[in-house]
Design brief:
The chain is α/β, with parallel strands linked by helices. It is built from 16 helices and 12 strands.
Length: about 350
């Protein structure tokens, strides 16, 4: 049983005193994990679906409770899930329900599944996630989803939305729906930075980027090269053990997918994104790749350093043409804040005790 004071204390350490919608989510999540409900009700409601605008504390609240939960649990981000399940389906033996077989094996031993940043924009992903959720509910797995979208807003493309409605109905039937509708954007309120991470204009940024690279790489040297990422060649300015330095056009301006960014994040803890010409955001494909990149780096609390011709967050304001741009601007704010826990900096402190002592 999670003590309510433990939740309040853990949130207070992150600068949060729960507002009304966050408290509803806390109560609902605790009921899912520890509520004394009848077996009939338990069979009906096996999950909690938290949705709302970016930065309203969905992941902060759920991450806090998930960390305190003592059951067998698993947390996964949408892009990684889609990649991993597709790989498993390809490798699985043929059967009448290969996706169901893979889903049951994937869920084996998982009592609580936390699916962060749940969204559905692609019809192929819709079929996969629909069958997976059906299997998970049948298996008795308790599920928590966080999303920027209310259930009825999932897969908004009118050409395909109707085909996803059975899954939406399943979510509405089996999940308690909690809207995070507080006025505060927690990411926008944490923008003070102990280190400058975004640089503009481009003139004169190379020295600053070189200093950043040298801070994290003991054998720092500029060695332009081509490295392999997700089976494809990526030209880089420099690549160390912790951080990779790459031009924006090479990473987001050419034909790449979230698979490239997952592979990149699994290999390096930080990215220096150089020579970003913000006019390229007018291309829908480029903008979407940038959104994917930020999603994946943010989920892992990896470091991001940007050199651009204009301030990048201002350049994104009001842009359309890609999914979830508002979430990206909100995340970029947090990623330069002093409250953002960066794996790269943690690893650097652990390997350099003198730095941690400062």
């Amino acid at each position: 049983m999670i003590d309510s004071s433990a939740i309040a204390h853990a949130l207070a350490e992150k600068g949060i005193v729960a507002d009304d919608s966050q408290q509803r989510a806390i109560d609902t999540l605790c009921a899912l994990l520890y509520g004394k409900r009848s077996e009939a009700v338990k069979r009906e409601h096996r999950g909690v679906y938290c949705h709302g605008l970016p930065g309203r504390g969905k992941s902060l609240v759920v991450d806090t409770i998930f960390a305190l939960a003592t059951c067998a649990k698993r947390r996964i981000h949408f892009h990684q899930f889609i990649r991993d399940i597709n790989r498993l389906v390809v490798q699985a033996p043929r059967s009448d329900d290969r996706l169901g077989d893979v889903s049951r094996a994937w869920l084996d031993g998982v009592d609580l599944l936390y699916f962060d940043e749940f969204h559905v924009h692609d019809i192929a992903d819709a079929f996969l996630i629909g069958r997976f959720l059906e299997t998970a509910l049948e298996s008795g797995t308790r599920i928590v989803l966080t999303s920027n979208y209310a259930p009825r807003k999932l897969l908004p493309d009118p050409e395909f939305h109707e085909r996803f409605e059975p899954t939406i109905a399943r979510i509405e039937h089996h999940f308690d729906i909690v809207a995070f509708d507080g006025p505060r954007d927690y990411r926008e309120n944490r923008v003070e930075s102990t280190q400058l991470r975004y640089f503009s204009p481009l003139d004169g940024t190379r020295e600053a980027l070189w200093t950043i690279f040298a801070d994290y790489e003991a054998q720092a040297a500029i060695h332009p090269a081509d490295v392999e990422v997700a089976g494809r060649s990526l030209p880089v300015t420099a690549a160390g053990k912790q951080i990779v330095w790459v031009d924006f056009d090479a990473l987001c301006g050419t034909a790449r997918s979230h698979l490239d960014y997952l592979a990149l994040a699994e290999r390096w803890r930080g990215v220096i994104l150089d020579r970003l010409e913000t006019s390229m955001f007018r291309r829908r494909d480029v903008l979407q790749r940038f959104v994917w990149l930020i999603d994946i780096l943010y989920d892992r609390k990896h470091a991001l350093f940007i050199a651009s011709d204009l301030p990048v967050r201002a350049a994104l304001e009001g842009l359309e043409g890609a999914h979830d741009v508002s979430r990206t601007t909100s995340r970029l704010a947090e990623m330069q804040s002093c409250g953002y826990v960066i794996e790269l900096e943690r690893a650097h402190r652990n390997s350099h005790p003198a730095v941690a002592a400062k």
